[in-house]
Amino acid sequence: MVGNENLISFPLLEEIYKDKSKLINILQNYISQNEKDFIELKDAIEQSNYTKIKDTAHKMKGSAKYLELQKIVNILQKIENYALEKNIDQIKENLIKLSEELKHTYDKINEYIIKT
User: Fold this and answer.
1) 95 closest CA partner among 38, 51, 48
2) Are 20 and 57 in contact (CB under 8 A)?
3) CA–CA separation, 98 vs 17, rounded Å?
4) Which residues of the chain have pLDDT under 50?
5) Domain spanning 20-115 has what CATH number?
6) What does pTM read for this prediction?
């Protein structure tokens, strides 16, 4: 079940960015770049490349913070920490959670873009 901490706050983002067309551009770029980063993260996990796992999770975490996506931030922080511990089982478990949260978030973003 998706908790409230994951909900993307479009009114807050509209207040921050003022210009809806700029916000839509930011959201579209977030999805595009994040999809590439997620593939990079999955590849690093398949190779057990802990440095790359940590670095990619850290990069993705910054993007999620930019959009106030706290649940995604929390999952990525766990992946970073587990990469430092070289705990591949926990990394894989959190990758599944991340995939689910990203799909939900992308769906919400796309709904917002269509409505705007």
Assistant:
1) 38
2) no
3) 26
4) 1-4, 6
5) 1.20.120.160
6) 0.91
